[in-house]
Amino acid sequence: MSKAFASSGDTAPKAETLETVGDGIWALTAEGDPNVGAIEGEDFLIAFEARATPLMARRWLEKLRQHTDKPVKYLVLSHYHAVRVLGAAAFEAEEIVASAETGRLIGERGKEDWDVEFGRMPRLFDGYEEIPGLTWPTKTFDQHLSIDLGGTRGTVELSWLGNGHTSGDIVAYVPSQKVLFAGDLVENGSAVYTGDAYHQDWMTGTLDRVAALDVEVLVGGRGHIAHTRDESQRAIELTRDFIRRMFTAVEKVKNAGSDIKDAYLAARAELLPDYGGMPVFEHAMVFDVQRVWDELDGKRPAIWTVERDHEVWDRLTK
Ligand SMILES: [Zn+2]
């Protein structure tokens, strides 16, 4: 049976839900599509993630404007993936903030990633013709940046916690309210895309450091918001379970001397009962297994191109 490439067959619109997750903190979820958020400062806003196009970003901002009309001073990007960054122009932010590593990755592979993600998930790119070009951070940091919210509102702590979903992911943590925006380092009720990941670092030290934060509300990259301490920890462990079981299944097949197609079938069979019904499962599995395979060979994440995307898809699924 041949499957539609990646998520190209997924064209039904998703319902978007704006939730107030703290005092002056909002998140927009969309049934497994990329989540976004905003944090209110004394006289400005910090937006977390930009969505894939300015049009998609404006739809989010219109909902946010029912709660606050403060200007967006900082647009924080958790990592370089196109569906998270290319809508940046709509925010008219003073600063676009990301890790220095994310800035480097945008220079190295931003254009290829734009092409690839458009091909994989066209539904997320409504209004794509309006994208003005690559999104470049204007303010970067290596490990940690603290933003003062003004008044008595406390701070937002941006941290790079280790290699994970990419080598540049950061999280945004509001200590005064114990709210965490974890980006794609944590998914809650969605399959986990790892095509650019460092699985071994992610499922050990990096997720340990996420789990060590004192969190009562966790907004992951995709899926539901976790509203309690327990739910937050469960979301982290769900992400770890997906990565570990997939990694182990691929490693076992590879060590036995079989080929990558067998590894794909084994990893898919391992995860299907628990994760098969979740968003982007079939899409993610193919690219994930290729990346596990390469990581086991000691390679850095290769740049996905449209050509490589289809070559890997066909080799594993047909
Ligand atoms: Zn991502």
UniProtKB/TrEMBL annotation:
CDD domains on file: metallo-hydrolase-like_MBL-fold (cd16282)
Organism of provenance: Streptomyces hokutonensis
Full protein name: MBL fold metallo-hydrolase
Domain Metallo-beta-lactamase: 33-222
Signal sequence range: none
InterPro entries: Metallo-B-lactamas (IPR001279), NDM-1-like (IPR050855), RibonucZ/Hydroxyglut_hydro (IPR036866)
One Pfam family cited in the UniProt record for this chain: Lactamase_B
